[in-house]
UniProtKB/TrEMBL annotation, chain A:
Pfam families reported in the protein's UniProt record: ABC2_membrane_6 (PF06182)
InterPro entries the record matches: ABC-2_transporter-like (IPR010390)
Entry superkingdom: Bacteria
Listed name of the protein: ABC-2 family transporter protein
This protein's record includes keyword ATP-binding: no
Residue runs in coiled coils: none
Keywords, comma-separated and alphabetical: Membrane, Transmembrane, Transmembrane helix
Transmembrane residue ranges: 21-46, 58-79, 118-135, 141-162, 203-222, 234-254
Automatic annotation (TrEMBL), chain B:
Protein name: ABC-2 family transporter protein
Keywords, sorted A to Z: Membrane, Transmembrane, Transmembrane helix
PANTHER family named in the record: INTEGRAL MEMBRANE PROTEIN, SLR1174 PROTEIN-RELATED
InterPro entries: ABC-2_transporter-like
Domain of life: Bacteria
Bilayer-crossing regions: 20-47, 59-78, 116-135, 141-171, 178-197, 228-252
Amino acid sequence: MADFTPYRVVLRSRMRAQLQYRTSFVTDVVGTLGVGLTELAEVLVIFHNVDVLGGLDFSAALLVFALSNVCFSVADMLVGHLDQLPTYIRAGTIDAFYVRPLPLLAQFMASDISLRRIGRLSVALGALGVALSIGDIAWSAATVAIIVLTLVSGTAIFAALFTAAGGLQFYVVDGAELTNAFTYGGAYAAQQPQRVFPDLLRIFWTFVVPTAFIAYLPAVAILDLPGDHLAPSWLAWFTPLAAVLAWLLAAGCWRAGTRHYQGAGG
Amino acid sequence: MRTFLLLVRAGFRRHSTYRLALLAGTATNSVFGVIRASVLLGAIGSAGTHIAGYDGPRVLAFVWWGQALLGVVNLWGFQEVGQRVRTGDIAVDFLRPAGPQLVYLAEDIGRAGVNFLARGLPALLIGALLFDLAWPPGIGSWILGLLSVAVAVVVAFCGSFIVNLSAFWIVEIRGIRLLWMITTGFLCGLYVPVPWFPDWLRTFAEWTPFPSMLQHPLDILSGRVDGAAVWGTLATQLAWAVALVVMAQVVLQSGRRRLEVQGG
């Protein structure tokens, strides 16, 4: 049984540190709250002009938005700081992680936790609450199971994207924004009704970067919508499998990246 | 004027150093462009033929010019000036023969130039290859549209400059910068066109400088605003540019009187 004490100690100290400067912390929370609200406003503005988008009405689109945002906010809170990897690589401080007798990825994940993302998470949870209560849902054990499975697996998929991006950043230090295309771009794609995309793109967002599994496919199943050739309602049950595959890929990228790194010298 | 041009060139060269970063920017802008284009096209398809003056090709032009200009107009703002105020380095800027506002504006124009050529145009090209965009309806729209982009660069720079200068009065300006970023992103029309907003929000947005940073150039370049109306749009932008340039100068001068730098 692995000993988790070092991780716990580090995480607790990181949390304490963030809560130390109250004004700063509140400002940051308000900031992520604002980001969440503008994302929501985008959906609201579109539905101010139309009643249906990509075959989904407002409550269904809100459910897709909410599911993907809850998962993204949690993943971003837990491992979003993998984004900062190029800073560590440039400064050479990543070497300190290599010499410690703990797995690099686990250390890096536990090295920070962005409590400020709670602002965005609260917008997402609010939207989820509204979407689940106004949606036309025939509640059953299966519905609850799908929601729980989705929240867990969806968070895992976003975390896998962050990790894969982290691994690639060892190769493209200056081009870190390149990986944003998959992490933040993936998050943006995940919150859309997938039928607005052409088939080729839907296949990409389902089977290559599996963000369709995070919100759209589960929403089709939860609301018992007819679905279509690329989104049959049974596909939602494969969300955990998509998460496992995403993690296999992420682990591969991370391993390749960390082995590629030559050290800062000195 | 010569100094100004030299400073613009210096800014251009400084920001053209990171080639891979520019390429990465193009790639990311393109991915977001494809997603946003699909969503807004889906909305137009669902509404019928058009929403608030945007039909399919025009909304595609809105999306792709928007992605192309995202790195050109400094929408997210910068923090360099605020940090220099905080550390007191701004005193050095005051000692220079050219005023800080001119120097930083020149650098920002240089930065805008690199981003337009190396990041914006490739993204626009990708958009044009993948989608059937509307092009500016005439040579006049091209010229005035690009002029409108230049004015947008100045408006966005001055706004962010003023935000940075608030560091003269408030030590930690991160909160104000965050608020600026969030408001700009939404009200400038980056995510959804400002004309799609509900009436009350659109009216509110139109009384702020934010649409002058992106929505107005996009209106001209996509052909949504055409003919004599273009001059009105451009005049609004110019009015905001002048107002913000003056305001930045006033804030800068009163900040200068407040500034105390310690050390010897």
